[in-house]
Write a structure and sequence with these properties.
By secondary structure, the chain is mainly α. The protein contains eleven helices and no strands. Helix 5 packs parallel to helix 7, helix 6 packs antiparallel against helix 7 and helix 9 packs antiparallel against helix 10.
Amino acid sequence: AWFWYLHGHWDEARRWLEQSIALHGAEPRLQAKGGAWAAVFAWRQGEVARAKERAEASMEGLAGSGDEGEGLSLLALALVAISRSDQEQADAYGRRALDVFRAQGHTWGVTTSLLVLAHSAMNRRSGELTALLQESAGLLTAGTDKWGQAHVLNLQGQEAIRALQLDLAEELHHASHTLAVELGDRAAQAE
């Protein structure tokens, strides 16, 4: 799923995921995990209602499991809430996802949850944004997660624009774009 996400093959991903979810006799937990990814792809393509439907269906099979699919379903629900300008709901889902991923020691999940919470904080113009970005950046500094690094730099750049620090914003956005190009992340290149 990650390859499809990074390279913008969202139609192909959704087609394969929907087919695998529809298979009779497939393990329910795997179907739910596939549904979580299908929710993310639907959200990415602007199909917010379908993303919500898929994420909620996945949560039925994964709620309380503490598994990666549960965290991803919660992140998809947080993204849907952000798309609908419901920052309170986005925060609730984002914090639940963060708890799931922290309990697993899942660095990508923790970082991504923090980034989703940072988006919500930015939309609310909350002072919490700086702390969320600092925690995300701290997790990424020691690792090799260039996708996460690109997104942290992008959010820092957006915050620099709001603070009218335009030279800093340009520097941060350039660094973010460079990483996105290196990864082949078409969505991040367009941001």
